[in-house]
Specification:
Strand order of the largest sheet: 3-2-1-4-5-7-6
Shape: globular
Oligomer: single chain
Number of domains: 1
Order of helices and strands: HHHHEHEEHEHEHEE
CATH class: Alpha Beta
CATH architecture: 3-Layer(aba) Sandwich
Strand content: 15-25%
Structural class: alpha/beta
Helix content: 25-40%
């Protein structure tokens, strides 16, 4: 997540460590070994009520509250629904999907993710052409909801990073419009000013409603927000009756 330490990468595998090892200050032995950015992140974590609440409730990350809030507002996770989570490490969104009654939950990430009862998880690169078929086989039917919290490796070059972000969103959208059940929904991490007109046009062509959402658990200073597309029109291009 942009407002958490790097842990989800769908372009190259990290050089070492684990999601848990990078998620907290235990790896930072002394203050003088910390970079300014890691020191700032640690201070935010210490003072972040969502981090404290996530630990208290047993969630794997504060990101769980982002999906919970979006679902509270828009009713995406219906009991018995099928859900695919792209870029699922460390598993906070999977926990919310299972907790709220989804009957089929499948996640994928480049990082290894601890097993979770009620979810099938694979370690793979979603951009691999064979990954989508593996996810669908595990799910056993068309998904009602596709979630994407993927983020690319950053290079520090603004234009390059922008193109990588948009490229990942486009890959997730193309997968969604290929496999979603009519009436289904799509949620993807995005960034303010980060989408192209073509991407938004693609979503509006295939979904009845497209909006930007910024949950309270997304830090105010972060440019992170989420694209929410509901009422998938289906491969025929017509929205289901309830989405019209």
């Amino acid at each position: 997540m942009t407002d958490e330490p790097p842990r989800k990468r769908m372009v190259h595998l990290p050089t070492g460590g684990t999601a848990a090892g990078r998620a907290g200050p235990k790896r930072l032995k002394t203050a003088k070994e910390r970079t300014p950015s890691s020191q700032a992140w640690l201070e935010r974590q210490i003072n972040d009520p969502f981090v404290t609440e996530a630990k208290a409730k047993g969630y794997r990350s504060r990101a769980a509250f982002k999906l919970a809030e979006i679902d509270d507002r828009y009713g995406l996770i219906r009991r018995g629904a099928r859900v695919i989570d792209l870029g699922c490490a460390p598993g906070g969104w999977l926990q919310i999907a299972v907790q709220r009654g989804a009957a089929g939950v499948v996640g994928v990430d480049l990082l290894a993710v601890d097993p979770l009862t009620g979810a099938d998880i694979i370690q793979a690169d979603f951009t691999d052409p064979d990954c989508g078929a593996r996810l669908m086989e595990l799910l056993g039917g068309a998904p009602d909801l596709i979630l994407s919290d993927m983020a690319p490796n950053t290079t520090g070059h603004r234009q390059t990073d922008h193109l990588r972000i948009v490229g990942l969103i486009e890959t997730a959208v193309e997968f969604a419009i290929t496999v979603l059940k009519p009436g289904g929904a799509f949620v993807s991490k995005a960034f303010q000013g980060g989408e192209t007109a073509g991407l938004l046009a693609l979503l509006k062509t295939n979904f009845a409603n497209v909006r930007h959402v910024k949950p309270k658990a997304s830090r105010a200073e972060s440019s992170e927000l989420y694209l929410l597309a509901t009422g998938f029109k289906g491969r025929g291009g017509e929205p289901p009756p309830q989405a019209r």
